[in-house]
Design goal:
This protein has a domain at about 10-110. It is built from four helices and six strands; from the N terminus they run ββαβαβββαα. It has helices at about 30-50, 75-85, 130-140, 145; strands at about 10-15, 20-25, 65, 90-95, 110-115, 120-130.
């Protein structure tokens, strides 16, 4: 588990298709999105190695929960990082604030839209929606219960 409030050092060696090797010493000098993308690749590869069964098969059950994952990345970096993790066989659950959903829109299959009940603010409800429906709820003030 990575906590954004903590600082982690890592060293990764990237081997490109042409055999060129690039050494990455943490995320210093990278933008927020570049750093998050690199960490996703490194974390995904490390988890796949540690959780794998020694074969090249993708794991049959390998969920990763990212709380506010990729909130500093634009849609391009987010897409590449999500593609890397899913290509390694991981099933992703990403918790993100409403204003960051655009970076995920093209990569999300379903949404668990969580909303407070207006009649009882202490009660929250979860609605299974598509990403389009969740955006409509936000943009047009629709009732998520009517869509889910």
């Amino acid at each position: 588990m990575l906590d954004a409030r903590e600082h982690y050092q890592f060293r990764a060696i990237e081997t490109r298709a042409d055999g060129t090797q690039i050494v990455h010493e943490g995320v210093a000098g990278k933008s927020g999105g570049e750093g998050q993308e690199l960490i996703a690749f490194v974390l995904g590869a490390a988890l796949r190695f540690r959780l794998g069964d020694g074969t090249d098969r993708v794991p049959t059950y390998a969920p990763i929960v990212l709380d506010e994952g990729f909130v500093k990345a634009d849609a391009e970096y987010t897409g590449r990082a999500l593609a890397a993790l899913t290509s390694l066989g991981f099933q992703l659950v990403v918790g993100a604030p409403r204003d960051k959903v655009n970076a995920f829109e093209r990569h999300v299959e379903s949404v668990a839209y969580i909303s407070s009940d207006p009649s009882n603010p202490e009660l929250s409800r979860i609605y299974p929606l598509t990403i389009r429906q969740a955006i409509q709820v936000e943009q047009h003030g629709l009732d998520p219960a009517a869509l889910g």
